[in-house]
Amino acid sequence: MEDYIIKFASIIKALKRKNRSVISSYKLSPNEIDILVALHMRKYNMAKDIAENFEISKSLVCRSVESLIKKGYIDTKKDEKDKRITHLILKDEAKPIVEALKENREKNNKILLKDIDEKELEIFNKVLDKMKDNIS
User: Fold this and answer.
1) Do the strands 86-90 and 74-78 form a parallel or antiparallel pair, or are they unpaired?
2) Which of 21, 43, 87 has the alpha carbon at shortest distance from 33?
3) Any residues with CB less than 8 A from the CB of 19 and at least 6 apart, and which?
4) Does the global pTM surpass 0.85?
5) Where does the pLDDT of residue 1 fall: very low under 50, low under 70, confident under 90, or very high at 90 and above?
6) Residues 68, 34: contact at Cβ < 8 Å?
7) Quick one: pLDDT at residue 9?
8) pLDDT digit string, tens, across residues 44-68
């Protein structure tokens, strides 16, 4: 019954391994990759949100953000309305990295979703949502 946990873990591990191999020349940590992906998706632009949604400790996200700033891939900008808030901004120097990751993600999605119809995927997403809610 608990085979699904092992299957989830192996799928995630394989996807991360494929991401690392695509951009290995950039010498990025897995957390740095996650941050760049999050910023490219424009879903999250604050370290706090990335930490919460990717379930990475805030201190590790902060270290990774500092590293990405030093490498010239991201920048920060204070919120105009609330100066306590700092937004993360993807710089043009990171575009080749995120484009390579995006192409790899699209290729892997085709492989992962092969022979899975829309209805099955919809059910799967509902089950994943319930599992996430249950564990939160």
Assistant:
1) antiparallel
2) 21
3) 33, 101, 104, 105
4) no
5) low
6) no
7) 87
8) 788 888 888 888 888 999 999 999 9
